[in-house]
Amino acid sequence: MDGDDENKENPLGFLIQDMFISVHMKNIPPSFLPNFHCMRSWDLETFLFEFEIVCRSYGYLLNTQKLKLFPVTLKDRALK
């Protein structure tokens, strides 16, 4: 596996290996998810980093799983 293949599944370059995270996905309480409001002062990279951390903590490792969860994080102008 070359570096490009690894970055497709691990775009933020986390050092923690996925094999140490539970295989079973747990329900994430909505209050644990970061919210994206689409404000000019909002730091998108920080939001995505926080989203990734919560997803990994609850076993959401695949992009398809994360995409199903992502709309819940959108608020205000970002939701519209």
Question: Please, could you describe this protein's structure?
Answer:
With 80 residues, the chain is mainly alpha-helical. It has a domain at 32-80. Helices cover 40% and strands 0% of the residues. The longest helix has 14 residues, at 44-57. The protein is globular. The model is unreliable at 1-7 and 15-23 (pLDDT under 50).
Principal-axes shape call: globular
- Rg over alpha carbons: 14 Å
Helix-residue proportion: 40-55%
Order of helices and strands: HHHH
Enumerate the spans where pLDDT stays under 50 for 5 or more consecutive residues.
1-7, 15-23
Number of strands: 0
Determine the mean pLDDT: 76
| Class based on secondary structure composition and strand pairing | mainly alpha
* Beta-strand content bin: under 5%
Distance between the termini: 40 Å
Q: How many individual helices?
A: 4
Largest sheet: none
Reconstruct the topology from this structure:
Blueprint: H1 3-9, H2 44-57, H3 63-69, H4 76-79
What can be said about this structure in brief?
With 80 residues, this protein is mainly alpha-helical.
Any key phrases for this structure?
80 residues; mainly alpha; single chain; 4 helices; disordered N terminus; 0% strand
